[in-house]
Description:
The complex is a heterodimer.
Chain A: H1 5-18, H2 24-36, H3 45-58, H4 66-85, H5 87-92, H6 94-113, H7 143-163, H8 168-186
Helix pairs in contact in A: 1-2, 2-3
Chain B: H1 2-25, H2 30-33, E1 39-43, H3 45-50, E2 56-57, E3 60-61, H4 62-66, E4 69-77, H5 80-94, E5 99-107, E6 110-119, E7 122-131, E8 136-146, H6 147-152
Antiparallel strand pairs in B: 1-4, 2-3, 4-8, 5-6, 6-7, 7-8
Amino acid sequence: MTPTANQNKIIELLNLYYDGKTTIEQEQTLIKYFSEETDIPKELLAERDLIMAMRETVDIEIPAKLEEELVNHIDKLDRKEQFRNSSWVKRFGIPAIAASIVIAIAVGAFLTYSPIDPINNNVVANNQLIAANTTRYDEVTNIDVAYQETEKALMLLSSKLNKSGHGLAVADVKINHINHKLNSILK
Amino acid sequence: MKTIYRNLIIIVVAIFATNFTANAQSLSLEKASNIKGVTSVYISKMMLSQIGESKLVGGVNIEDIASYLNSVEIVIAEDKNCAKELRQETNKLSKLPGVELLTKIKDDDENVTIYGKMKGNIYEAVLLIVDDGEDLIVILITGNIPLDKIAELTK
């Protein structure tokens, strides 16, 4: 079967298309032909499928912020590269910097929590040591001293509470407790 | 380089913030006991649990109340300068969350202030401050002390 003039034109456009030399108008002509023409020669059916498949992939929507995201991503990669190439990292390496931070934390913790040497003025019992590992330098380690000091503390508290009048302290305690509850409700 | 500085600053700030928070939230006289010139005593829960003999002293059952205590701290300043410093430290403690003024007593030349920290009907801490202008006695009792046990001290 002899190709028609129109078919010859399409074949010519297809050749240009495969060479990458078609204009947008020419590509649209091809698409229009293959989507509307019902009498397509057998030898062009494969071309039709290809052109129609290409047409489907033409309309890809590009996200509005794609450029911005790409620039940000490139900047991020650039910053990572700069970090790797920075003089500190090059000189000491990441493990060394990490180790330095750990040492700094350890020293900080030691300075914050290490016990201070006992001061002579502080009352620290020495006999009948029952607690080998004390956490505070002024910790009492003698049962008798612990009893005496607890007794003193409680008796002082007791006497001062009594000074405020029998029952008055209790009333005060209760009133404060009620106030505390009322405040928490009102909040 | 900026990233390193930023990360280092974040780490340092985090460490200091953690320490500050830990220190700020603890109701303890440990810091006050480090003031130069003060006399301090710390009785731990373990020591308090060793008080076995039941004795009534001035109508107060020491062993009974001791069983509700976690710690007893006493700090005494007998010098104007260290009393001033101790007063400042104690003032900080009295402003901690949950700490409330229970009573204020004027006893001769002494100003007595008692603060408490409550959780329901339980006292988690009682802070007693006896201040005569020169000497200062601060006692901090912590534990889980029922309200009636505090009331017993007034009998």
